[in-house]
Amino acid sequence: MRNHFDLGLHIGDLDHKKLTCLDLGCGPYGSVVAAQMCDYPWKELTSVDGHKESIAEAKEKKFKAKKHKFIVGDVRKFTGKFDVIVSFDVLEHMTKEDGHKWIKRLEERAKKKLVLLFPVEPADFHRKNTWDNPLQDHLSHWKIHELKQLGFETTEYFGTHMEEKPDGSTVSFGCLWATKSF
Predict the structure, then answer these.
(1) pTM, whole model, 2 decimals?
(2) Which domains are assigned to the chain?
(3) Pick from 61, 84, 107: which is nearest to 15 by CA?
(4) In this structure, how many other beta carbons lie within 10 angstroms of the beta carbon of residue 182?
């Protein structure tokens, strides 16, 4: 059954065996979406994350990619061009200004497809100082119209996340897939 976290709905019917893929902010491949990357038989998969512990944990997973590189580094400073670039739950960790610059860089570096996924949180909800990893702090909110203005195809799902606020109350919010083909 396909659902809102089904990567295949957004990555499309590409011939993965012939394509290179860059996964920016890969984390330990523990989320429902990120774990699906393990099952794609990429010609080459490059996984980048700024948190060395996440990369160490990711290296223990089994991947179907023919060749796989792991890099501990800043997701904004990658080099090279890739057939497909994916990034799940990263954009909200940048300021709006850095996010716009990063998206432009992604567009310049993706040869066939760019796939982004991020939460659509209420403007008054900021997840900060809740993890051991300071790279996890949320620094910006993004809305569907902002990505549409940048030429992305978008799909928004509502009610996909439930989080606790510092005051103990809960907030429900959704996620947004943004894709662009080249």
Answers:
(1) 0.89
(2) 8-181 (3.40.50.150)
(3) 84
(4) 11
